[in-house]
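#lab-general

N.A. 3:47 PM
ok so I finally got the sequence cleaned up, no stray characters, all 958 residues accounted for. can someone with queue access submit it? mine expired

B.Y. 3:52 PM
send it over

N.A. 3:53 PM
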Amino acid sequence: MILGAADELFTWDAAYITIFSQEDEGVTAVVTFDTIDGRRQEVPPPYASGTLTPTAKRAIAEGGLLILRDDGTATSEYSELIPFGDTTRRSASLMFAPIKKGEKPVGVLSVQSYTHGAYTQADLEMLQILADHCSGAIERTLAELKLRQSEAHLRLLTEQIPALLWTTDTELRFTQLFGTGFKFLNLDPQSLVGKSVRYFFQGDGFSSLHIAMHQRALQGESVAYETTHEHHIFDTFVEPLRDSGGEIIGCIGVAYDITQRKRAQEALSKFKLAIESTESTVIITDKDLRIEYVNRAFEKLTGYSKDEVIGKTPEIIMSGKHEKEFYDNLLKTIFSGKIFSDIIVDKKKSGELFYHDITITPLKDESGGIKGFIETGKDITERIQAEESLRRAHGELEKRVEERTRELIESNTLLKQEITERKRVEEELERSLSLLRATLESTTDGILAANRKGEIVNYNRNVIEMWEIPQSLIETRDFEKIQAFILNQIKSPERIRRIMKALEVQDDADSFNVLELKKGNIYECYSKPQRIGGRSVGRVWSFRDVTARKQFEEALVRSEAIYREAIENASGIPYRMYYGTEKGKLTHNYEFIGEGFESLFGFPPSELTLEKFEEITQETVILDPEAPPELSEYSEAFRRGEVSKFRVDFRIRTPGGAEKWVSDCSVPILDKKTGKVIGSLGILQDITQRKLMEERARIQQEQLIHADKMIALGTLVSGVAHEINNPNNFIMLNTPVLIETWESIEPILEEYYAENWDFLVGGLNYSEMRTHIPTLFSGILNGAKRIKDIVRELKDFVRQRPPELMEEVDINAVVKSALCLVENMIKKATKKFIVEYGAELPKIKGNFQRLEQVVINLLQNACQALPDTDKGIFVSTSYNPETSSIEVKVRDEGVGMPESILKHIFDPFFTTKRDSGGTGLGLSISANIINEHGGSLNLVSTPGEGTTATFTIPVKKK
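B.Y. 4:20 PM
back already:
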């Protein structure tokens, strides 16, 4: 448009418009034209190097420049004589005009002609006028460029979010979708734009839940819920989406994938349940053998509770029945990283001794270092005692046989007595053998006894079933053949064969081996010599199937290691509580509460009752989205076994007055017989710091969002302000012309009126219009001036100034600027508004825009506090010479505030207007701004009488 106007005014053969940056002296071409072969066309810019030519620099420095080439052929000093596109000829007439924004040069407008003497000084002045018109267009272009860059940056950020982010309109149709989470669900976000939320969740069992939550957001709620989609579990948050005027235009939602976290929690719960359910004792220690955990089986066996042993060493159950070398070997083995297994005599809390079959396994970290130990054990006292009884029975039998044999040799003459005695001995022996047979058949072990001649002298049914020995083979009683049959089933028969050969030589030696069968079973094999009269007469073999035990032990070692990691990383105060009834009322009896309770709650565990807990509780947050909404209903459902967990956050006030947040996470304790809930096992955690960090993060997020909005608003307002100013300037320029025109034609109309009486003008009688037209013109002119003032104030408000900028600020100008921006709000809120400006107030060092923001916040609060328009608002500025400070007061005759609210009024996110969209950030941010200026913000309020907000800022002496 500019170059077209130049063409009509004085024509041109070549022309360009460029933008110039003073910071880096960079040049950006806007448009470049040249006439080639008689046709005007756009060509590459002449500034390929990115810097201005000397002539253009001179024009920027000195002003408009006119160059008229002589007719001679001498080379000119100006490089611009050679045009940008057609290098076959030279320009004869050139004009350069700087483009400025205020006093700052921002570009160059140049036109050239191949005709000698084509331009005059008047043409140069007209070119300068056109250049002045370029500044607004260039400024809009720069603003649009920054806006596009800001939008691209925002889109880049949202597309990189590791979650699912979407927005909808009020009909719940998707408008935008971002985030890498869609990629993991194999979804194309762009394919969902325009489709309904109902369409997206139509195959989801929780469709009604999603729709209900989005509809609640459309009503102004902020909702959070947990849901499942395509086997993924998500924490989902939906907020109302509002336009700049606060109207809800849709929803904005975000969902985070928490599937892995949920699965880890479920696995940990199963591991813990397995450990607590096993009948084997479990002890977990640190690397210094300090006990960190024992299971229920340990407590039941030893009589010690967890609290009595935690922090102590396993020496608490040592009986002292073993030599020092035994314990030294145990420690040497486990500290070398090896597993130790043996039968040890331990002592219960009551002093009773018991045989403990233990296995101690070192727990190692990723680098191979020992970080602790896990001991599993089983009480085998009854088995040991049974074995000792069996040995005593065998010894007794051998002794009696020897005695009877000796008596027979010595008493040949007493044959009859000998026969009688022999029958008696045979009968007793038969009873003993019968008892032995019953013992052999009742044991779960497989027993096989052979004499030194290689004959099977005794066996039980279990050994036949364990080794699947054919009846025909066992009836041969040939130990060598049976041994070969057994060895054929073992994975490493040569090793066992060598051991058995060695036992033939060392016939008085005991033996123990673990046999791995080809079919996968694992047997423990015990072998002891059989003696009569101190002489070995054979050997007894005992086999025990330990397959299930070994598999369980391996699984237990793996699960214990994982559980051990979980326990080490866990924090909180554990407790166990059982339910009861007293006089028909449900009671809670705490069996134990871990350390740290008193430091968290401010009173000892002995004083804890349900009534006490309800008394200190100020607020509750139920974390289970599927739980009943009321805490009492949730608790009842938990006690009835209808929910599998209890997860609630409590805000408490301790007896000392401190406010804290406590997380309660517990699982039910079930009666083994009836399956009913009889209590709960849980952990109390102090989450006060986490809550404070969440609030702090939310504040920072709100501030970042506010900053981004202000940047975007500033860019938008700058462009809109120019768009408004252009037509408004036409109004301001043309209205005086219309007034002069009316004043010129009014006598003619008056004369016509006097001669012809009344006539219509614009649909009204002239007699009425002649009195109103001057008023109408005056109103138009005043309105245009007001538009100009509002645009100027709005541009000043959104102009981005660095927070640290400390300029000379007139506090009266700050208040006037703020009143201009909130004038409509004040008019709607009150009929009585009074401002008193202090005279000749000294200026202060500060940031005009941020102080203006404080005044606006205080005025908005005052307007919102008024119950009706008859109540007033009073604003004043003054100087206090005693404190050498500027004071600004905003007083309202509103509803006022009680002391309980007033003491929290500067807390971030504390608001009494949450339902109407209040965020609780205004006064918190205002107080921070005043503190940055070295001043203070104070509020005094009386319920029913109103509130006075006063901020003071010191005047620094020069």
